[in-house]
Amino acid sequence: MATQPSERQGNSEHAEPPADVRVNVGSAPSQSGGAPGIPENVVNGFYFQPLLKAAFTGDWESAEKFILRDPASKIANITSRSETVLHIAALNAQDQFVENLVELLSQSPEMLEKVDCGGRTALHHAVLCGRIRIVKALVRSNRRLTQIQDEEGRVPFNLSSQEASMHKEIAWFLAKNTTFDGSNHLDSSPNAIQCIVGLTYAGHLDIVLYLLRKYPSLILKKGPGETDKSILAVLARMQCHFLSGTKLSVLEALIYKCIPVDVNSRPTDENSTNMQTSTNPALQCLSRSFWNAVNIVAPSPIKRIHDVKLRHEAAVELVKKVCDALSQRNPTEIAQFFQDRDLLAQATVKGISELVKLSIQYFPELIWISPYGTTLITLAVQYRQESILRLFLKESSTNGLSLVPAPTEKESARMMRAAAKCNPDIDDVTNVSGAAFQMQREIQWFKAVESWVTPDMRTARSGPDNKTYWQVFVEKHQKLLENGQKWVKETADKCMVVSTLIATVLFAAAFTVPGTNNGNNGFPLKGSVMVFAISDGLGLLCSVTAILLFLAILTSRDEPLDFLDSLPKKIIMGLSSLFLSLAFMLVAFAATLTYVLDKTLEWVVIPIALLTSVPVTLFMVLQLPLLFQMVKSTYGPSIFRAEGIRK
Predict the structure, then answer these.
(1) How far apart are alpha carbons 356 and 361 in whole angstroms?
(2) What is the pLDDT of residues 160-176, one digit of tens each?
(3) Residue 58: which H helix or E strand, with range?
(4) Domain 1-164 carries which CATH code?
(5) Which of 620, 523, 526, 612 is nearest to 579 (CA)?
(6) Helical H runs in 130-258?
(7) Nearest to 204 by CA among 254, 132, 294, 267
(8) How big, in percent rounded to 5, are the helix, strand and coil portions of the chain?
(9) Phi–psi pair at 462, nearest 5 degrees
């Protein structure tokens, strides 16, 4: 249908029915489903055009007059697609119009079950349009509407989970109010698992948990045909449903840890977005009061982070439920379940450490699984998923790290080949700022794998060219190496220009010290001048240091191994020196200006301090995140830390 008009009712002067809405022409009432008793020439004469226009624009007053004059028209087919006035109003988001019409039909709720040419009721259309008011009005008047299937065999709840999955409020309402019986029972319906899978893809995992508690037999079921996917198969492809696949800022991470969620809660009919944290009424009241206050201060960010955490915890709970159900099966069935869709391989490639960890905790034999003929450890190395690799790392007796289980010679060769390959599209590589630090991360991976494999692999040669794995690594990363060299040179060159300008200014300022001199010792008497002299000297020292560091970068050879330690340290120290020189220059400027204006404008100290802090703050906001990532990558804790599967 056309775009949804405004919800304001009774305004029909600015809208016309869309071109694809046509009245029945050239057919008798018995054929077109028109109102009984209306002559054929009346139907052919656009008899329902006023009613159609009123439903499209939400003009209930005009529609009511038409219906009172012709009571049969309220359930007549008024378009060529056998749509009634209720269908048209629901399609065009006319909430109040539909509520009035439903109230008018309340004495005969079976009239709400009229379907169009696609077998869809007005409830189907309301679900697709995301109109919760219309959905509630229809279902509360006739609960049988939730059971009526369209021509594709889908009830409104199926549409809500698949084609209208962005409307979570409607999905929750239908999940609680849909009644199933006979062949359409959710526990036996062929579309049942498709509904569950659709909700899982959409991230409405709390609704999935609610349904699985009612219908536990669906936990291990798979969809038919090409949609042969279980709940776990969907979760293994959706890293955004887990904390390991979600990036949070520092503030978001803090809120994430503090915010309470309850995966067992479900919204009430009155307010489908309530955040319930306990079954205790007093605690519920306290929690609602707290969240109401929080939502007033920052409604959007808090609600978004709450939904994210709820989805993450519900995903982990779903994995546990699947594993609990699988644990009742025999080992052959368990292995077949994980191998059908290569679940652990998919989860490893996506970096979903929660799913891999829980699966191996429940079924330790899966640690030996080799999807695609490759172990999970090698897949983690190939796709640079350190969160997965940490699960297999243990501290050795020599305080080093070793893999558990230890790789065989054949597996060691595969791991070395995987570490030598370059895939610039991998998130672990692209998330690092600058090509130089991407190269650093790749070398860190290679060196780590080299320390875990069998010793002979470190010097072994492979391939038709009989090259060592390090030579293969350099060859495969040649483009990244060139980009890193270019990035380092350009960064150093530009920063050196800025450092030189700062050094020039500070050097010239040192010979033009403001103020008067003491006749005995020749030093300025004013305290602010002393601040100027000290900050000017420190700024000059820092800027000269930055110049020397950037000069060292420009004259370096930029060998591959230089990107592991030497070049990153020079860049970090150079940027730090540049930042300090800029800060000291601004302090010297503020001290001088304060001294000059002190006699005439004594109140000028505070405005000067505030103004000079603006460039420093701007530099910190724009450059410190990059500097922080560099320091973390070079001096911070290793990305390879033992986490262990059993905890």
Answers:
(1) 9
(2) 888 878 899 999 999 88
(3) none
(4) 1.25.40.20
(5) 620
(6) 132-141, 156-162, 168-177, 192-202, 205-214, 231-235, 250-258
(7) 267
(8) 65, 0, 35
(9) -145, 170
DSSP state of 219: T
DSSP secondary structure code for residue 184 in this structure: G
Q: Residue 41 burial by CB count (10 A; 0-12/13-18/19+): exposed, middle or buried?
A: exposed
Whether 556 contacts 566, CB under 8 Å: yes
Nearest to 55 by CA among 9, 22, 123, 24: 9
Model confidence pLDDT, tens digit, residues 36-92: 444 444 444 478 889 989 999 999 999 999 999 998 888 898 888 889 999 999 999
CA atoms within 13 A on the CB side of 223: 20
* Kind and range of the H or E run holding 20: none
| Two tokens, residue 451 | 């320390």
Cβ count near 157 (within 10 Å): 27
Judge whether 1-164 and 479-634 match in fold: no
Q: CA angle at residue 70 from 67 to 73, to 5 degrees?
A: 70
Distance CA 498, CA 581 (A): 10
d(CA 591, CA 464): 69
* Nearest-angstrom CA–CA distance, 439 and 424: 10
What's the rounded Cα separation, in Å, for the pair 623 and 578?
11
CATH architecture of 479-634: Up-down Bundle (1.20)
Output the six-digit token pair for 411: 């597996």
The closest of 202, 189, 223, 193 to 160, measured between CA atoms, is 202
**What is this structure's pTM?**
0.79
For the four alpha carbons of 107, 108, 112 and 117, in that order, the dihedral sign comes to negative
Residue type for position 345: A
Closest CA to 193 of 238, 233, 242: 233
Task: Enumerate the domain spans of the chain.
Answer: 1-164, 180-373, 479-634
Backbone phi and psi for residue 631, each to the nearest 5 degrees, phi listed first: -65, -45
